[in-house]
Amino acid sequence: MILILNCLLEEKSVNDFNKAMKRHLGNLPIKYEIIRAREIDKISDLSEYTHLIISGSGASAAEENPWDSSLERIIIYFVENRKPILGICYGHQFLVRVLAGMDHVRKAKNGEIGFASIEIDENEIFNGIVDPVFSVAHYEEVFNLNEDFKIIARNKNAKVHAFQYKNLPIWGTQFHPEYGLEDTKDNINEYREKNPDFEK
């Protein structure tokens, strides 16, 4: 069973992410469970889960949040048991925080909102993908990763748009593979409403 940790804060964002996950996984013969980050202490038995997905968030991986110790415990369990992990945006950053340290996460010089062309390397998570344009929504980034991290995607704004850790089934993506065209357009419109000077 896939454990999906929804770390988003605003209810609309929480629901949008859940809908995206259901759209991708709902018709597949795969069992999954989506749990809010603030409720992860309710998880009593991690052994029943085979995979872990950690969502993005309006929270910062460079700051303290109520679920940090529980999320770190879960990540360490999956790493030690060599179970697959995918960290998305905030999840990507929090993975680095756990595996390399807090001092490898910072505010990005150039945040990205909307769509971004990203250069990808050959890697199993990119099978069949050529010249991708992904959904992006981030103001923080990871940097100065050591040799344990293989950087597998980048662009002019982010030198680490994706990584694989120690050739294990552990990946982080700064971009949002779960969101498609309409999701991203909705996100752009929300940013425009919050900030009249916003430019995609």
Concise summary:
By secondary structure, the protein is α/β, with parallel strands linked by helices. The chain is built from four helices and ten strands. Helices cover 26% and strands 28% of the residues.
Q: Enumerate the strands of the largest sheet in spatial order, edge to edge or round the barrel.
A: 2-1-3-4-10-9-8-6
The residue-averaged pLDDT reads 91
User: Which descriptor suits the 3D outline?
Assistant: globular
Oligomer: single chain
Radius of gyration, taken over Cα atoms and rounded to an integer in Å: 16 Å
Elements, N to C (H/E): EHEEHEHEEEEEEH
Strand-pairing-aware structural class: alpha/beta
Low-confidence stretches: none
Features:
single chain; 200 residues; alpha/beta; eight-stranded mixed beta sheet; 26% helix; globular
Q: Layout of helices and strands, plus pairs?
A:
Elements: E1 2-6, H1 11-25, E2 32-36, E3 51-54, H2 68-80, E4 85-88, H3 90-99, E5 105-117, E6 119-120, E7 133-142, E8 149-154, E9 162-165, E10 170-173, H4 181-194
Parallel strand pairs: 1-2, 1-3, 3-4, 4-10
Antiparallel strand pairs: 5-7, 6-8, 8-9, 9-10
